[in-house]
Amino acid sequence: MSAVVNNQPEVCNVLGDSITLRLTKEQTDGKYSVAEFATPDGVGQPPHTHAWDETYLVLEGELNLNVNGETTIVPTGGCQQVKAGVVHAPTPNGGFCRYVMVGQPGGVEAVFQSLKANEKDLNDMAKVVEIVTKQGVNIAG
């Protein structure tokens, strides 16, 4: 007998990104989280670090992960891992980019959920930094 899974994933439209939370730590016993990003050109994340590993799989376009300040292009179909503590800044490389990010262990969704819950404050970058810092993201200075 097969089961039909019909739980709609949460979507967080924050800072120009559309982030679909495909699997959360609650659904994976804390082992990992899966988020799908739809990111237009000109939108991206600042250089940052955190205590979890991330693996990126590009579905459409090209992603520049900017690992340790160096251009790191991941093409459509490409995959790249970023270890915990490594400075990176995912941004589209010259156009729209759609990619999946797997965070290990799970819990990265809390960053996006906190941004969504505080969307009235997202025009103030100091508040954005404060929100993500509370969730374990360190903006690289």
What's the topology here?
Layout: E1 10-14, E2 17-23, E3 33-39, E4 48-49, E5 53-60, E6 63-64, E7 73-74, E8 79-82, E9 91-92, E10 97-104, H1 109-117, H2 125-134, E11 138-139
Antiparallel strand pairs: 1-2, 2-3, 3-10, 4-11, 5-8, 5-10, 6-7, 6-9
Description of the structure:
It is a single chain. The protein has 141 residues and is mostly beta strands. The chain has a domain at 10-107: Jelly Rolls, CATH 2.60.120.10. The chain has helices spanning 109-117, 125-134; strands at residues 10-14, 17-23, 33-39, 48-49, 53-60, 63-64, 73-74, 79-82, 91-92, 97-104, 138-139. The strands form 3 sheets. It has a 6-stranded antiparallel β-sheet, with helices on one face. A hairpin with an 8-residue loop joins β6 and β7. The chain starts with 9 loop residues before the first strand and ends with a strand.
Cα-atom radius of gyration: 15 Å
Q: If helices are DSSP runs of H or I spanning 4 or more residues, what is the number of helices? A: 2
Bin the strand percentage.
25-35%
Q: Any idea of the CATH class of one domain?
A: Mainly Beta
Give the neighbour order of strands across the main sheet: 1-2-3-10-5-8
Reading the helices and strands in chain order gives EEEEEEEEEEHHE
CATH architecture of one domain: Sandwich
Please describe the biggest sheet, giving its number of strands, its sense, and whether it closes into a barrel.
Answer: 6 strands, antiparallel
Structural class by SSE content: mainly beta
Runs in which pLDDT lies below 50 for 5 or more consecutive residues are none
- CATH superfamily assignment of one domain? Jelly Rolls
Q: What is the terminal separation in angstroms?
A: 54 Å
The tally of beta strands, per DSSP, is: 11
- Fraction of residues in H or I helices: 10-25%
